[in-house]
Amino acid sequence: MSKFQELAKVLEREIAQWEGAPVEESIGTVIEIGDSVATVYGLRKAVYGELVEFESGASGIVMNLEESGTGVVVLSGENGVKDGEEARGTGNVVSVPGGDALLGRVVDPLGRAIDGKGDIKVGERYPIEVEAAPVIERAPVNMPLETGALSIDAMIPIGRGQRELIIGDRQVGKTTLAVDAIINQLGKDVICIYCAIGQKASSVAAIVHNLEKHNAMSYTAVVLAAASDSAALQYIAPYAACAMAESFMHKGRDVLVVYDDLSKHAVAYRALSLLLRRPPGREAFPGDVFYLHSRLLERAAKLSEKRGGGSITALPIIETQAGDISSYIPTNVISITDGQVFLDAELFASGFRPAVDVGLSVSRVGGSAQFKAVRKLSGRLRLDLAQYREMAAFAQFGSDLDKATRDKLRQGERLMEALKQGQGTPYSMVQEALILFAAVNGYLADVFVENVGKFLCGFLEHVKTGYQETLGVIGKTKEISDECEKALRKAADEYTAQWKN
Predict the structure, then answer these.
(1) How far apart are the C-alpha atoms of 369 and 288, rounded to whole Å?
(2) DSSP E strands: which ranges in 94-129?
(3) Can you tell me the distance from the alpha carbon of 321 to that of 345, in angstroms, rounded to the nearest whole number?
(4) How far is it, in rounded angstroms, from Cα 464 to Cα 374?
(5) Cβ atoms within 10 A of the Cβ of 474, count?
(6) Nearest-angstrom CA–CA distance, 494 and 501
(7) Are 165 and 389 in contact (CB under 8 A)?
(8) Is the peptide bond before 330 cis (omega within 30 degrees of 0)?
């Protein structure tokens, strides 16, 4: 049999098996490309958020649907896209990998590894944009998320499933506070995701090194949209990080997500919106800039037991200009979150770190998500600090002060010193309870202000060596019973006597 006869038989068989069903595809042509935005004519069945693939191998996301064409923001391979080339709708939205394969890795907002450790084994993929869990599927926030920062755990408690904003000027310790919270989750069965938006790659490399040094990368994933990346990648970065977090939450795990920072995210979205020729509003931001962050932060939740009981705790970071928390983006995010930790530049410059301004900071979850022993002691702490701030304002005028006022000022100075904490040195909840016990019960009264830190370190060590059983009871019950209080007073009296000698 000749080759032609064989070919004829193959063709006959193919024709006989051909079903003739029409194949429907969404195909368009690029008519304009520039600044990461392609205008595509065609794509008549495109939907908002759909992933589009270009003939050159680039990919993009549909963000504008108009009669004259479809606005596609190019996510990768922008330099290869040319006028006149074909663009094809995939029928899928942008999705990222999830699960344990991400832990210990640094990925871009599309879920591709950028840490030089090889590709990530992709199992299930998760769409970056999904609806937030409805109210009926949520549970009350009542479990503490221990940050290890005494001033926060004592007075601005954060619960698992909460959204707590970290806000302040540049270079006042916002990222440090968030990274220390991640480091403090070691051994607490909390997955952490750090999302860097518009940060320098070198700064993020230093953060990753710091996390590795404290063995925190074993339960942490880092999503990086660097300052050198396109506005499109910076725009989708937090949604990608949230989708990765949801892959754990829906399996019943607790997740902490840090968005660093949403100011740069809003700026990236403004750039995209202006390139897409959307009408600008206040400060040139588009009209839906509130929805930009509300649909992201509403996905942080504590799920009910029926849904597995997992949670996502969000710590968004916002950078202010000259301490102005009443500007556009800060007020938007403050109104979405369940409270804010305000870091003050003056406190930071004076050496008080973390520079938490207790007066402007608040947590709307309150004591329901707080270690009971810490809650019992911190009520007096907030009151004493409020009185100290009020009296300190009058004392600076140099007028004669009565003994009661001088005592309040002395106590306030020592409380402020007790709240100081070094970078990368988080406290356990029991240690925080011991420090508060010594601070609010007047054991620091006779200690020079500059020696308060040394006194408290020695006191912790004294209790640890001589009162192990008491510490065990406090750690187990999370309360300071009358017996425990008696033992702690005895320990404090012993150590104070040693200190004086």
Answers:
(1) 33
(2) 95-97, 106-107, 125-127
(3) 11
(4) 18
(5) 26
(6) 11
(7) no
(8) no
- Greater confidence (353 vs 380) lies with 353
Q: What is d(CA 40, CA 51) in angstroms, rounded to the nearest whole number?
A: 13
Give the residue among 257, 210, 202 at the shortest CA–CA distance from 227. 202
What phi and psi values does residue 138 have, to the nearest 5 degrees? -105, 160
- Tokens, residue 254: 């607790």
**CATH class for the region spanning 97-370:** alpha beta
The strand pairing partners of 30, in sequence order, are 40
Catalytic residue, from 112, 170, 364, 489: name it.
364
CA–CA gap between residue 345 and residue 323 (Å, rounded)? 8
Residue 442: how many other CB atoms lie within 10 Å: 12
In 3D, which of 410, 416, 415, 429 has the Cα closest to residue 353?
416
Q: What is the pLDDT of residues 55-90, one digit of tens each?
A: 888 999 999 998 888 999 998 887 888 888 899 988
Domain boundaries of the chain, sorted by first residue:
27-92, 97-370, 374-500
273 near 35, Cβ under 8 Å? no
Give the pLDDT confidence of 401-420 residue by residue, as tens digits. Answer: 777 777 788 888 888 888 98
Domain 374-500 has CATH 1.20.150.20: yes
The pLDDT score that the predictor gives to residue 236 is 94
Length of the chain: 501
SS3 of 130, please? coil
CATH of domain 27-92: 2.40.30.20
Laid out side by side, the sheet with 190-199 consists of: 106-107, 220-226, 190-199, 254-260, 311-319, 165-168, 339-343, 362-363
- Measured in degrees and rounded to the nearest 5, phi and psi for residue 52 equal -120, 135
How far is Cα 236 from Cα 265, in angstroms, rounded to an integer?
Answer: 9
| Residues 274, 280, 284, 289, CA torsion sign | negative
Residue type, 6: E
- Locate 163 and state its tokens: 């959204």
Per DSSP, helices labelled H in 184-327 are: 201-213, 231-249, 262-275, 289-297
Confidence (pTM): 0.89
How is residue 447 annotated by DSSP? S
Spell out the residues 6+ positions from residue 127 whose beta carbon is closer than 8 angstroms to its own. 93, 94, 95, 243
Write out the DSSP string of 221-246: EEEEEETTS-HHHHHHHHHHHHHHHH
Is 253 annotated in the active site?
no
DSSP 143-167: SB---S-HHHHHHS--BTT-B-EEE
